[in-house]
Design brief:
Blueprint (H helix, E strand, L loop, with lengths): L24 H26 L18 H8 L1 H32 L6 H8 L7 H12 L6 H8 L7 H4 L1 H26 L3 H9 L4 H12 L1 H15 L4 H6 L11 H11 L3 H35 L1
Helix pairs in contact: 1-14, 2-14, 3-8, 3-11, 8-11, 10-14, 11-14, 13-14
Amino acid sequence: MTTIANPTTTTASPPAPKRGFKLTPAALIWPAMLYLILTTQVPFFMTVYYSFFNYNLVIPDNRPFIGFGNYATLLTNPQNLQVVLNTVVLAGGTLILTLFIGGAMAMLLNRNFPGRGLLRTLMISSFLVMPIVTAVVWKNMLLNPVFGFFSWVVASLGGQPVDWLAQFPMASVIAMITWEWTPFAMLILLTGLQSLPDDQLEAARLDGASPLQEFQHIVMPHWTQAIQVVVLMETIALLQVYGEIYGSTSGGPGLATTNLPYFIYQKAFAEYNIGLASAAGVITVILTNILAVYLLRMISRTTASNRGG
């Protein structure tokens, strides 16, 4: 009689997990962050570095450290203060006009009427025109004192033709840039209007609210975020206006339309004064941040007061 032995059953242990390099979401973001740092922050810090030196490309080997000397020159020279004032007036005037005109156009396009899509497409076409092309068109076709459209209108009404760029240089440049940037404000504000629920407006009308009360207490608070986007984006862009001035007035007559970007161009590429141009660039960045923060806070306070009222 044979006896069959039961074989001992052994359980195989699972293989040890292989340890490898595991990418985290933060690690995937770092290449883009490094690219942004190299392309934005490094040039800015180099600009800050050069602003502390008397650096002129005519004598590149002689680069003495002067501390805040370039900033003192910019902030104490009356002509340079005029440039800063021109920059604020140009940006502020254009921003106010684009907000009012863009808001009115947005409210118009928010209504249903035949051809609304075509009209909206035509109205945003000016925003797609290059700045230098805008300057050439306005200078030669609209503002020219001899054969410009506006001079023809004035002459047709019995008046004398006006040399707009010579007699009203800042107003002419503001009108030019307003024509260019109004479609941007219109699109953002129109998007804000289209996201407003219709039942809120209907409820206000049933309660007897007037059109002014409806606009003040419903439309404006709803427009807050859209207005903040317009203010922030346009402030940054309008403080960097260069092509329109270069192609129309070249900063003149005198310093009448010279803003900080055109001043930086003159100092860096005409006078080769890299130190002074760098200091002006740093001041432009600081001024942009101050104006953007101030305007956003002012809008928030105005909206809060409207809601409270």
